[in-house]
Specification:
Mean pLDDT: 94
Structural class: mainly alpha
Oligomer: single chain
Order of helices and strands: HHH
Distance between the termini: 25 Å
Strand content: under 5%
Helix content: over 70%
Number of helices: 3
Low-confidence stretches: none
């Protein structure tokens, strides 16, 4: 039996967590660009070409740390998003079941 109240409570109680997870993901996406730019400008003198500077920035441990943080943030955002989708679908299924029950009740009257 589907309890729509539990599903709605879950959505309400976790809306802020989902918003925070999305904000973290967006922040890290932007920080990744900033970190790349910072590392690009800090590339050693032997990195004379743009390609060499990019290779330095993309392979730097600070950039890789940002990528790892972004991976974790996306995973958490997606986990919460799919839990919300699931809760929403439970409410939809409950609505359909209630509608069917009303039709059956009318047919038996």
């Amino acid at each position: 039996m589907i309890d729509p109240e539990k599903a709605l409570d879950f959505m309400r109680d976790n809306a802020k967590k989902l918003a925070e997870a999305k904000a973290t993901r967006v922040y890290l996406e932007q920080w990744r660009k900033s970190q790349r730019a910072l590392l690009f400008t800090q590339a050693p003198e032997d990195c004379k070409t743009v390609l060499a500077k990019e290779a330095y920035a993309y392979s730097h441990e600070l950039y890789i740390e940002v990528l790892e943080g972004l991976r974790v943030a996306v995973e958490e955002e997606e986990r919460l998003r799919w839990l919300m989708v699931s809760a929403n679908l439970k409410v939809d299924v409950w609505r359909s079941q209630e509608s069917s029950n009303r039709r059956i009740d009318k047919a038996h009257q």
